[in-house]
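call fold(seq) -> tokens
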Amino acid sequence: MAQQFLVYQSLWAMERRRPDGLEWTLDEKLAMIRDAGFDGAGVRFFDRQYAKTVTDFLRAHGMSWQAQCYPKTVDDLKPIIEHVQEMGADHINLQPDVRPHRLEECIPYIEGWRRLAADAGITLQIETHRDRMTTDLFFTLHLLDCFPDLRLTGDLSHYVVGREFAWPISEENHALMHRILDNCWGFHGRVASREQIQVQISFAHQKDWVDLFMGWWEYGFRQWKNKAGGDATLTFLCEMGPREYAMTGPDGYELSDRWQEAIMMKDMVRALWNRLPS
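ret:
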């Protein structure tokens, strides 16, 4: 088998949060994701019934999913693993919902979560995310010094905002991001600027930021292809979220069509993947 590339849509990103309160039903969201040509979805797995409803639909339509969770303790991962054993998932995406000040305080969490996942035979990835253990770029690099084989899910937007990288991006900051990308085994897709966690990728004046992220993703895809097995699967989750991630005008409505931008991102990263050598 050849290496595969799957593009998912985040169900959180399907929330609209409009001033008029108009929301899509879960059935509508799932049908939209299927009909738009996504390969699957990112699914919160802490609610068993919700996860079962979603994964039953995805499975019935030949789609797949990642299991997302936010444990505060090592034991918080146990029910997530049970749900994955019941329903399946290509991997667990873990946001470590703890904020240790010192590296040594992180070690029992990382070791505990990795041990539980390994014992269950489930792939585990730790997401780079603000207000989590991985909130800071430098702190996360120290984690990689301690755990050189730690598998990350790269949501690079958080470090661009968190460090407020000056433009143009310096070679030093590119090198720091490349160290993160070297450990990425999956990606969450959102484009940030140094001041905004989520810019409108359909606006022409955001092109420099879009090009920056596309360059980082290309580097990350190439690194993954070199280290992953010949039959491995890389997942990319389009995750452009509702307000306050999405910027809004004075009327409270978003400045761009975020659903159409998710489809646009899907097509962009698939085209990027297809340009890379096999």
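The chain is about 45% helix and 15% strand.
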